Structure formats: C-alpha cells, structure tokens
From TrEMBL:
One of its GO terms (molecular function) is protein-disulfide reductase activity. Pfam families: DCC1-like (PF04134). This is Thiol-disulphide oxidoreductase DCC. It comes from the Bacteria.
Length: 125
C-alpha cells in the first residue's frame, strides 16, 4: 500500500486555514491534512522554518513547498484540477506561480480570513 501524501499548513493563520478548508470542500484534497504545529516535521523530512514560510506537500519522501505544493495538490485531486496542476509544474507557469505564491504569502495577513497574527513569526503568535 502506498503511503498517503501529507499537506502541511500554518494552522495559526486564518487565511491559510480558510484556504485549506476551501480546497478540501471544492477541490478534494487527497492527502492527510495537518497544521505544522501538530506535525512531526522531522519525520516528514522538513523543518519548522520551512513550514512557517510555505505550505508543504510531502509525498514519497520528497517535500514540495509553496506553489509546487499547490501544483501537487491539484494533480493528486484528479480531473479537472490535474490539468492546471500539471501546468504549474513547468516553466513559465512555474515561475509565475512561485512569484504569485510569494506575493500572497507575504501579504496573507491582509487577505480575507487573515489576521494580524498571520504577519508575526510563529514564535511570537
């Protein structure tokens, strides 16, 4: 039996939590979903610093972050989501997606569902 992928997100961030819940309802996340605050990050092959910075998709011992984590989530969801997910994995779409992801991540406290706490480093929340 193949091990289920894991989607790791910031459970203290309202925008992140809202986004993950939306993906679960509308896209159909085919992964175990867990806030990084409750995940065994070392066992997943990643660090707290990385999990604080970006959403993570862990599959078959590999860790994908940011826009590539979103791309993997979409591919795993199957049609019709797999097509945009595959597109996000190749240049120039990959580059654009990563830039957009960084912009959203840096401003998540200003977005719907975001709170001022989203702007703080995890150690200060």
């Amino acid at each position: 039996m193949r091990e289920q992928p894991v989607l790791v997100f910031d459970g203290d961030c309202g925008f992140c939590t809202t986004s993950v819940r939306f993906a679960e309802r509308r896209i159909g996340v085919r992964a175990r979903v867990t806030p990084w605050q409750f995940a065994d990050l070392a066992a997943l092959g990643t660090t707290r610093e990385r999990a604080e910075r970006e959403v993570l998709w862990v599959e078959r011992g590999r860790v994908y972050g940011g826009a590539q984590a979103v791309a993997r989530l979409l591919v795993a969801a199957g049609p019709p989501w797999s097509l945009p997910g595959l597109a996000l994995r190749v240049p120039p779409f990959r580059w654009a997606a990563q830039g957009l992801y960084r912009l959203v991540a840096m401003n998540r406290h200003r977005l719907p569902g975001g709170t001022p706490a989203c702007a703080l480093p995890a150690g200060r929340r």
